[in-house]
Specification:
The complex is a heterodimer of chains A (339) and B (358). In chain A, strand 6, helix 7 and strand 7 form a beta-alpha-beta unit. Chain A is built from twelve helices and twelve strands. In chain B, a hairpin with a 2-residue loop joins strand 1 and strand 2. Chain B is globular, with a radius of gyration of 22 Å. In chain B, helix 15 runs antiparallel to helix 16. Chain B is an all-alpha fold and 358 residues long. Helices cover 73% and strands 2% of the residues of chain B. The chains are: A alpha/beta (339), B mainly alpha (358). Chains A and B meet through helix 1, helix 2, helix 3, strand 7 and helix 8 of A and helix 5, helix 6, helix 7, helix 8 and helix 13 of B. Chain B: This is Xylose transport system permease protein XylH.
Chain lengths: 339, 358
């Protein structure tokens, strides 16, 4: 321990020196374009605040860390919570067993409502039954469109992945595509598989599935490049997440292919690519809406006894197509990270 | 298969007879055998085998552009596999190297964006941060004497959490903002992520860096005093210290070298894709370590080369892309990768055993 302090100050010294140097050269090195300065400061959606007594709601998802999609869901939930005077407890774990523990945690905290995603419904069955017996209302969102009723959830907000895939397949037909490759970035994820299955179902041409390693972008890029040069007949690349669509733009160029690109899900860089025409269209399941409605519905239930979808039908948030014709309307919201 | 044909005549050659071999035994053995005993030769033959296999089964691989793509994929693994291999020769390894790449890219991107500065400022600060992480890893390993597995498992988790939390805190999103319209981006892209043409084949610059770094690392390992230190501290730390090798300096500098590699690959990713998602990089550390191990670096340290991991990384790139070029069912992708790599390691082992048997 004695030897630690001098060594540590040695290690910090260059960092401090660097910080000082950066501060000194800040003016000289500033960028004249882009950057934070050019970003418009825009506020999120806001609709005042309800005067109802504060309630506590837990949102428990199967998000894996650092994924842009889930960030948008969470922002929607936060917006609804702020408006409804709800204290929001957000937690997530991609492992179904851990997700069940997080739901148990919410039950132990005696929250007034729970919103969950049902990526692996079987693992959550017991804990959801426990929430019901504790008289805590539970709603579902995002995944589990075919299971939420069996598990006894009150309402569901999301997109039917197969339906979304089918919609994209139909769109490919009208675009006159002949052969599509459906790029799965996370092998074994049921929602992603359903999307590609949906495409396969309605698309009149051939659909091939390509698995890539989603945590390593350079490898995603070269794998799609490889597929496009292996099969020159591919005229449409379908990706299942916005960052992968943007990467496949480079793959198409590298492979010297003429393939066009369509994708599921949006982010702000993607809206730019759609307006530039490098990406044709995106199927948006409106994750913000999923988060927002899940929280808002629990507030409505507590304060007015309402059921969205009558408690019988899921409330679909997608598929909504974003293409060159309507991208401008969406772009401003995507820039804020809410579409 | 072609690899074993090379090996057979060499094995068939009778070794020079006994009495003359009394002293300088290894020096008198036939050249081919001595060559085969080197760790990188086995992996070289394995790489040739994999290459020939895909040359036969996947017709597109025969084209130059496909080879450029395979080499690009290999280079993004290989540039990191090099310092990871040197570190392993030095007797340690680093589980944080995969997420450290993303840490570096996130630092450069967010710093220049948030302060609206020339991106080179971000690039330089990211280098400092990456070297700092390497220093901390090395310093903790040396000072505590704990296994580097534990220390770097800790930093792996810390970096993973920091990547996500800080990005979210700073950008309010989990990905960084697009910096492609900022000053210095064009230059930086030229340095880290450009490409050039050989004939009509587009070649990525990372391939050149990869081979240059490999040559440099080979020279350092075989021709400099520092290279001797690396082998010495990996072989036996205490006896190395006894003969005057600066063990602390060598180990910390090796960790910092991994930091440098993480910075370099991180910059390549940033200037290729303009933005970085904070959750990436997890799992890559095992690929770097695998490439180094396949390349003949022992997990226990003290042995290995810099050229071996080049072929190790090439095998990864070749198999990963070769499966796609062959148009096989992608569901089997990982399983096939595993089988091919195990096969390659076994060839490697067999060649070196045959070659060293007397």
């Amino acid at each position: 321990m004695d030897s630690s302090s001098p060594s540590r100050s040695r290690s910090i010294a260059p960092v401090v020196a660097m910080a000082a140097a950066v501060a000194l050269t800040l003016a000289g090195c500033s960028s004249s374009s882009g950057g934070k300065k050019s970003e418009e400061s825009a506020d999120g959606a806001s609709a005042g605040k309800a005067s109802t007594p504060q309630m506590t709601v837990a949102l428990v998802t199967h998000q894996s860390p650092g994924d842009t999609f889930w960030d948008i869901v969470r922002k929607g939930a936060e917006a609804a919570a702020a408006k409804d005077n709800v204290k929001l407890i957000y937690s997530a774990d991609p492992n179904a067993g851990n997700q069940a523990n997080l739901i148990q945690n919410a039950i132990d905290q005696k929250v007034d409502g729970i919103a969950v995603t049902l990526a692996k419904p079987d693992a959550l069955k017991d804990v959801i039954a426990k929430a019901k017996s504790s008289k805590i209302p539970v709603v579902g969102l995002n995944s589990g469109v075919s299971e939420w009723k069996n598990l006894g959830l009150m309402e569901f907000f999301g997109q039917d992945e197969t339906v979304a895939g089918e919609a994209l397949g139909n769109r490919l037909n009208t675009e006159g595509a002949k052969k599509a490759v459906c790029v799965i970035q996370e092998q074994g994820n049921i929602g992603l598989t359903q999307r590609c299955d949906g495409v396969k179902k309605t698309f009149k041409g051939t659909t091939e599935v390509l698995n890539v390693n989603g945590t390593d972008m350079p490898s995603v890029k070269s794998t799609i490049t490889a597929k496009l040069s292996q099969d020159k007949a591919i005229d449409y690349v379908v990706t299942l997440g916005a960052p992968f669509a943007l990467t496949s733009v480079q793959s198409v160029a590298d492979a010297g292919s003429k393939a066009k690109i369509a994708t599921f899900d949006l982010n702000k860089d993607l809206t730019g690519a759609i307006s530039k025409g490098t990406i044709q269209f995106a199927v948006d399941q409106q994750p913000y809406l999923q988060g927002y409605l899940a929280i808002d519905s629990l507030w409505l239930y507590k304060n007015n006894g309402n059921y969205m979808g009558g408690g019988e039908q899921p409330v679909l948030t997608g598929p909504a197509f974003v293409d060159k014709s309507n991208v401008e309307a969406v772009a401003a919201y995507a820039a804020k990270g809410t579409r | 298969m072609s690899g074993t044909q090379h090996a057979e005549p060499a094995v068939g050659t009778p070794p020079a007879s006994g009495p003359q071999q009394a002293d300088g035994r290894t020096a008198r053995r036939p050249l081919a055998l001595r060559l085969l005993a080197r760790p990188e030769v086995g992996v070289f033959l394995g790489a040739v085998a994999v290459y020939v296999f895909f040359l036969i089964t996947a017709p597109p691989v025969r084209e130059g552009s496909a080879m450029a793509n395979v080499l690009y994929q290999s280079s993004t693994i290989g540039i990191m596999a090099l310092p990871v291999a040197l570190l392993m020769i030095g007797g340690e390894f680093d589980l944080s190297s995969g997420v450290a790449v993303i840490t570096s890219a996130l630092t450069a991107s967010m710093l220049s964006y948030q302060l609206t500065m020339n991106v080179w400022v971000g690039v330089v600060v990211a280098l400092m941060v990456s070297l700092g992480i390497g220093f901390l890893n090395g310093w903790m390993v040396v000072k505590t004497g704990l296994p580097s597995f534990l220390i770097t498992l800790g930093t792996f988790l810390i970096l993973q959490g920091v990547n996500l939390a800080v990005t979210k805190l700073v950008t309010t999103n989990v990905a960084t903002d697009d910096i492609s319209d900022m000053d210095g981006f064009g230059q930086a892209r030229k340095v880290f992520a450009s490409s050039f043409h050989i004939g009509d084949v587009q070649v990525k610059i990372t391939i050149v860096y990869w081979l240059v770094f490999a040559a440099l690392a080979t020279w350092v390992l075989l021709r400099t005093r520092y290279g001797n230190w690396v082998f010495a501290v990996g072989g036996n730390k205490e006896s190395a210290r006894a003969v005057g090798v600066p063990v602390t300096f060598t180990k910390i500098s090796l960790f910092m070298l991994v930091g440098f590699g993480a910075w370099f690959v991180g910059m390549h990713q940033l200037f290729t894709f303009n933005t970085v998602q904070s959750g990436e990089g997890v799992g890559q550390e095992l690929i770097y370590i695998s490439a180094a191990v396949i390349g003949g670096c022992l997990l226990t340290g003290g042995a290995g080369s810099a050229i071996g991991p080049v072929f190790g990384a090439f095998m990864f790139g070749m198999v990963q892309q070769g499966i796609v070029y062959a148009g096989w069912n992608p569901d089997w992708f990982k399983a096939f990768l595993g089988v091919m790599l195990l096969g390659a390691v076994l060839i490697n082992l067999w060649v070196s055993r045959t070659a060293t048997r007397r």
